Each structure stands twice: as C-alpha cells, then as structure tokens.
C-alpha cells in the first residue's frame, strides 16, 4: 500500500510524505492524518529555511551593491543615484544581475590594490640600510 501526502501550506512551500506498507489498508485514517500533519510541518520548516537563506543572500547583495556604488561614486564623481543608474545600465546591457556586477567591480578593485601595493613594496626605500 502506498499513501502519498502532499502538503502546501500558505507559506508557498510544499512537501510530500510517502508511506509504504506491504499489505493493503495498513494505515488507519488517524495514521494518514498524522502523515498529513508531518508533511505540513516539514513544508513549513523548509519554507523558513528558504526564507532565511533568501534574507542572508539579500543582505550580502545589498552590501556588495553599496560598496560598488561607493567605488563608482569615487571613480566617476557621481552621486549615489547616478551610481545605481550606472549599475542598472551595466546590468541591462550585459544581461547580468546587479549583485554579480557589483561583486565583479569589487573584485577588480581588490586586484588593482594588490598590484599597486605589490609594486609599492618593491620601490620603497629601506630604512636603516
């Protein structure tokens, strides 16, 4: 016997619980109701975890976008609105999400700093020598 319980609570997530038995009518109505409650509980738990992951991702994206805006503002002498508009344009022109563009911009800046600090170290005079 196979009993499949699919739960779709109002949170938008869904979960399925498959109960298998070797004989027909192995599960009582109460067992099936308990299965439905367990499936609903699992769906809600998955929904909460998914929302938490989305929240963490949104925070990280927000920070990266803020850093990228700051870089653009400093480099091009534009305000925050102009920097965001530039990020939007780059996103649309390249069909790339704004957070991805922001991360690339931040990474490129770190690469430039590494190269410039490496060359600065080799050209600095030594003290006491």
From TrEMBL:
Residues 109-129 are annotated as: Disordered. Pfam families: ANTAR. It comes from the Bacteria. Residues 45-106 form the ANTAR domain. This is ANTAR domain-containing protein. It comes from Mycolicibacterium austroafricanum.
């Amino acid at each position: 016997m196979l009993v499949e319980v699919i739960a779709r609570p109002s949170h938008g997530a869904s979960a399925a619980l498959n109960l298998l038995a070797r004989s027909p009518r192995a599960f009582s109505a109460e067992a099936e109701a308990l299965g439905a409650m367990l499936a609903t509980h699992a769906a809600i738990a998955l929904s909460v975890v998914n929302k938490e992951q989305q929240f963490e991702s949104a925070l990280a994206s927000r920070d990266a976008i803020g850093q990228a805006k700051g870089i653009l503002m400093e480099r091009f002498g534009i305000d925050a609105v102009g920097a965001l508009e530039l990020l939007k344009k780059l996103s649309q022109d390249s069909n790339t999400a704004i957070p991805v563009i922001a991360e690339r911009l931040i990474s490129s800046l770190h690469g430039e700093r590494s190269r410039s600090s490496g060359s600065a170290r080799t050209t600095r005079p030594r003290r006491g020598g």
